[in-house]
Amino acid sequence: MKYANHDDAGPPSSSSTYTRAKHVTATYQADPSGAWTSAYHGVATDHEAYSPSGSWYHFVYDWSNAGKTTHETTSEGFDGTWDGISENYHQITGLPDQDLSCSAPGGGQPWWIYHYYASGVQYRWSPAKGSTDEVGVCARTRQKLFTGGKAIVNRQNLLHINAWAQQYGKPPLAPWQGTPADFIDPAKIQMLGHSLAGRQADGSGDLYLVMPDNAALDLNLSIPGVKHYNATVTSVQKHKLFVQANSYLLAPDCVRPDAHYCVGQGLTFTPAFVPEIPNVSEKRVQWMLPGKFVNYTTPPSYPDGSSNYVINLDLLATETTIAWWFNAAFVPQKLAVMVRVNLTFGNGQLASVPACGQLTMHRPRLVNFTKNVDGPVALNLVHNHAAGNSPYLEGPLQDALAVGPPAHYTVYVEAIAPFSGLAGSTQTVSGREGTDWSMGVDTHGNPYLDTQEFYVPPYPLNEQNGYRRRIWIVDTPGTSMGALSTWATVQLDFEDYIRFKPDAGPGPNIYVTLGSVDWHVHGETSLGLGPAPGDGVDWCPVATGDDVPQMIPTGEAGMDDLVNGVDYFPYWLHTGQGN
C-alpha cells in the first residue's frame, strides 16, 4: 500500500509518502494427539519520507511463534531493535492487511477496512488548491484448507463452508476515511473452484463439498470482476458420515469393540452424519454389502411350503436397510459395509458422500460327525392288529412296514463366545412309499418337509454347554399297510439341514444352514403268512418269488458324509405326514 500527499500551494512545496509491504505465511498441522497447531511468520516494512526536509523513517516488523521484534532506522542516524510491536488492533500483524476507516466516538471500536484483495486500486484527491492526496493498494490473500484426519484411511467427508464478502469503493477522504462498503451477493463468491450459488440461490453463502481427509487445498477464494474487497470464511464444518449397525457406530479403519456379529443375526444399517447436516432437501442412499447375505423373505408357493430368503436390490436403496449374513468363517471374518449418500441442499447444490464401516462375522461350525447307515436293510412288518382277531382274516390293516436297522447320525454344533443360540435339524424328503392297496406318498421329485420344520427340536447352545451342542437323528422310514395289502415299497431320499439361529442383538434373527447330510432308503417286499409266536401265523415280508415267509434283506440304504459349510436354505414344496 502506498499513500502520498503533495502540497504545492505556496513556497516551499512539500510532500510526504507512506508505503507498506507485508508478507505473512502460516501453516497448520496436527500434533501426535490430533490437535491442530499453527506455525506462522510475518514481515512488514513501513517507510515514511518527507520533503523538502529529506527526513525518513523505516520500520521492519518481524513476528512468528517465537515472538515479535521491531527494527527502526531514521534519516537522523537512529538504528535500534526491540522486542514487541506497538499496535492496538493488529493493524500491523493482522491478516489480511487493514487500515483505519473511521474512529469510533468515545474511544469505542474503530472501523477498519481489510485488503483481502486489491488490484488496480488507485485513488487521487485534491482537498485544497495546490494540494493532492494519492493512495494505491495491491493485495492478495491466499488461504489453504486443511481437512484433517488420517490419510491412510482414504476417507472422504462432507465439508460445509460458509463465506461472505464486501466490496469497497472510493473513500471520500484520504487515505481510507469513510470508505464505502457494500456486501457482495454470495452467489458471486468462488471457492475451491466452485461457486457459492446453487441451482436455487438463497443468499446463504454456503458451499457443500466432499473432500478427502488429511488434504491441504488452496481455498482460492475470489470474486471475479471485483477489484477491491474483503472476504471472510465464517465457518468450516466437517460432517463425518458413519455406518450404524443396530444403532452402533462402525469405524472406517478398524473394528470397534462391539462390532462383532454372527450369521443369522439381523443387522439394521443406517447412515449417520456427525454432526447432523442442516438444510437438506433430498437424500438418496445406496448400500453395498459384502459377502453372502439375504434381506428379504418371499412367501411360500403353497400354504404348507417354505418361505425363501433372497436379495431384494430395492431394499439396498433405502435409508434404513436390514440384512442377514448366512456364510462366513468360524474365525470371525472382517467385512466392510459401504454406503453412499447423495444429498440435495436447499440452495440446489449436490453432494455425494461415501462411507465405510468395519465389522466381523462369525459362523458356527460342525464337528465330530458319525453315522451308521450303509448297506442292505430289511423292511420289517410291525404288528399292531387287535389281540384275539384272526390275522389271516384281518390282513395287515393295522400294521406298518418299517426299515431296519434305523438310520442314525450324530454331529456337534460349535460356536465361539458370546454367540449363543439354538441348534436343530430340518429334514426334507423326496420319492414315494406305499402298498398295492394304497400309495401313501409320492412327491413327484419335489422336496417335502418331513412332518414339521424341525425334525430334531432346536436345543440351546450357550455358555452352560461350552458353546457346543449335540444334534442326532434315529430314523426308521416306512409305510402304513392297507387291508389285504400283499406288496409294499419304500423309495425315499432325505436331506437333513443342520441349522443355527443366534440370540444376539435386537433381531429379528433367522436360522441359517451350517451343513447337510444326504441319505436314502430304497426297498420293496411282498407279504405272506408265516409262523409267529403267540398267534400261530402272521403276516411278514417275503422275498419276491419266494414261497417261504422269512425276515430277509429287501433293499439297501446309504448315507453320505456330512457336507460341512453348506449355506443354502432348506426348501420344501409341501409338508408330508412323516416317514
Please characterize this protein's 3D structure:
With 579 residues, this protein is mostly beta strands. The chain has 3 domains: 2-141, no CATH class; 240-362, Immunoglobulin-like (Sandwich); 365-576, no CATH class. Helix content is 1%, strand content 57%. It contains 1 helix and 44 strands. The strands form 8 sheets. The chain has a 16-stranded antiparallel sheet that branches. A hairpin with a 3-residue loop joins strand 33 and strand 34 (439-442). The longest helix has 4 residues, at 391-394. The termini are far apart. Mean pLDDT is 85; it is low at 385-395 and 543-552.
Give the arrangement of secondary structure elements.
Blueprint: E1 2-7, E2 14-30, E3 36-51, E4 56-64, E5 67-74, E6 79-83, E7 97-102, E8 111-115, E9 117-128, E10 131-140, E11 144-146, E12 156-168, E13 181-183, E14 190-191, E15 194-195, E16 206-212, E17 216-218, E18 228-245, E19 248-250, E20 260-262, E21 267-274, E22 280-288, E23 293-294, E24 296-298, E25 308-310, E26 321-325, E27 333-345, E28 350-362, E29 365-371, E30 374-382, H1 391-394, E31 400-404, E32 407-414, E33 421-435, E34 439-442, E35 448-450, E36 456-461, E37 468-475, E38 478-480, E39 487-502, E40 512-532, E41 536-542, E42 555-559, E43 563-564, E44 574-576
Parallel strand pairs: 20-28, 35-44
Antiparallel strand pairs: 1-2, 1-10, 2-3, 3-4, 4-5, 5-6, 7-8, 9-10, 9-18, 11-17, 12-13, 12-16, 12-18, 14-15, 18-19, 18-21, 21-26, 22-27, 23-26, 24-25, 27-28, 29-32, 30-31, 30-42, 31-38, 32-37, 33-34, 33-35, 33-36, 33-39, 39-40, 40-41, 40-42, 40-43
